[in-house]
Target: THAP-type domain-containing protein
Amino acid sequence: MPGHCCVPGCNSNYKSYLESGQPPISVFRFPRDENLMKQWLKSIPRASFTPSRCAVVCAKHFPEDAIVRTDIYRLPDGTLTNIPAKTKLNSNAVPTIFSDLTYYLFKTRQTKAERELEASLYSMEILDRASPELWPENFPGMSEFTNKITQSKSIKLPYSRELTQDDQNYMHQLASLPTTELISRVKQLHDIAYQLGVEETKEITRGKYLNLFNKRRPKS
Model:
């Protein structure tokens, strides 16, 4: 039984290959010539690979003209003919075809890329949570205000004299929110203030009309 091809991603002569109904494929041992051996190792995409005495490369990785499948035989009448012979390689044959390697390399690189992406996203998440420089102070004095409130809620700041204790507690809660949540909360407060303004305008208008009607009411 032919040996298993040592090229990465190639399943020639493996159990799965033979069970799929494909016939065994010819394999070739590594050359003894030192220079030719170096060419093979340089051509085969397998890092830090030292072939054993049993290591083989299948015929799928060689050009067809590098494989010898017949011998020339001279008939008794002097005619030359080709007859089937044991498959072998030309003396200078080098494996150069690695079509089965595309999917293998894609899987390897994709897995590595996914690991790098996951590590990068995790690092960004840690940096996002730990680095105050990512969120500069957009409002002058806000950091000072937050720090003072954090240190003590009982401190009477100049701009808090007209605020109730509930107002100050609520401002303390807002100051401790993350930036995105704070923006969302401010928008909600803005909408509430707008609705209150609309309702107040309606009430004022309603009061004016009632006052007008009262003026037009005839005296009894």
About this structure: The chain has four domains: 15-99, 101-134, 140-176, 178-220. Residues 140-176 form one domain. Strands lie at 27-29, 56-58, 67-74, 80-89.
